[in-house]
Amino acid sequence: MRCTLFLIMLCSSLHPYIYNDSLLLIYAKVVPRIMVLDHTQRNGTQKRKLCILYEKGDGPIAVKLRDLVRQNLPSQVKKSFIVDISSYDETESKNCIGSTALMLLDARTEKIDKALKLANRHRLLTFSYSNSLLENGAAVSLLVGKEIYPVININAVKRSSLKLDTALFQIARIYDGSGIR
Predict the structure, then answer these.
(1) Hey, where are the domains in the chain?
(2) Helix 59-71 with 21-36: angle, nearest 10 deg
(3) Quick one: which of 81, 125, 68 has its CA closest to 102?
(4) Residue 83 φ then ψ, to 5°
C-alpha cells in the first residue's frame, strides 16, 4: 500500500501543472482574436506572432495549444499570423524573436518574471493560462464560467504602453491589482 501511494505521489510530482483540454481550446480561439485588437506599433511589422512559453515537461501541452490555435485561426488573419513554441529557458531564442504576444503556460515564478520582463521591454501583449499570473503582471487572462470574459490587467497594459482596442475593454473584466471587477 505504501509503495502504491509513493508511486502515485512520484508520478504526480513529475507533471505539476494540470491543463484542461476544453480550456486550451477556448484559449486557442480567443487569444488570436484579442491579438487582432492590439494596435501597439512594433517596428512596422504587420504580422502577428504568438510565442507559447512552456515549462520543462509541458512541451506536449504547448504543441497541442499551438496546433489548436492554428486550426482555429479566423480566416482573415491566417496569412498574417504565426504561432511558435519555446521553453521558458529559451525565451529569447529564435522562436520568440519578433513575437507580438506571449502565451504563458504555468511555470515557476522566476521563469514567469523573466518572461514578463522581456514582454515589458519589447511591448509584448501577454496572455496567461492561469488567472493567478495576473498578480505577477500578465496583461490578459480569461474568466471562464457560464460565460467567458477576457480579464485585462490594467496596470500591466499601462506599464507596457500597449494600445488595445476600446471594444476589448467594453466586454472585459478589469484586474487592478486588488481583484477582478
Answers:
(1) 18-133
(2) 50
(3) 125
(4) -125, 125
| Tens of pLDDT, residues 135-163 | 999 999 999 989 999 999 999 999 988 99
What are the backbone dihedrals phi and psi of residue 50, each rounded to the nearest 5 degrees, phi first? -105, 125
- Could you tell me the CATH superfamily of domain 18-133? Response regulator (3.40.50.2300)
3/180 Cα distance (integer angstroms): 44
**pLDDT number for residue 44:** 61
- Report which residue type is found at 134: L
Residues in CB range of 78: below 8 A, 6 or more apart: none
User: What residue ranges in 35-129 does DSSP mark as E strands?
Assistant: 48-54, 81-87, 101-104, 125-128
Cell digits for 93? 531564442
* Torsions phi, psi for 97 (to 5 deg): -65, 135
Each residue's pLDDT tens digit, 76-119? 888 889 999 999 988 776 778 889 999 999 999 999 999 999 99
Closest by Cα among 65, 60, 69, 61 to 30: 69
Q: Give percent above pLDDT 70 in the chain.
A: 87
Q: Which amino acid is located at 53 in the chain? A: L
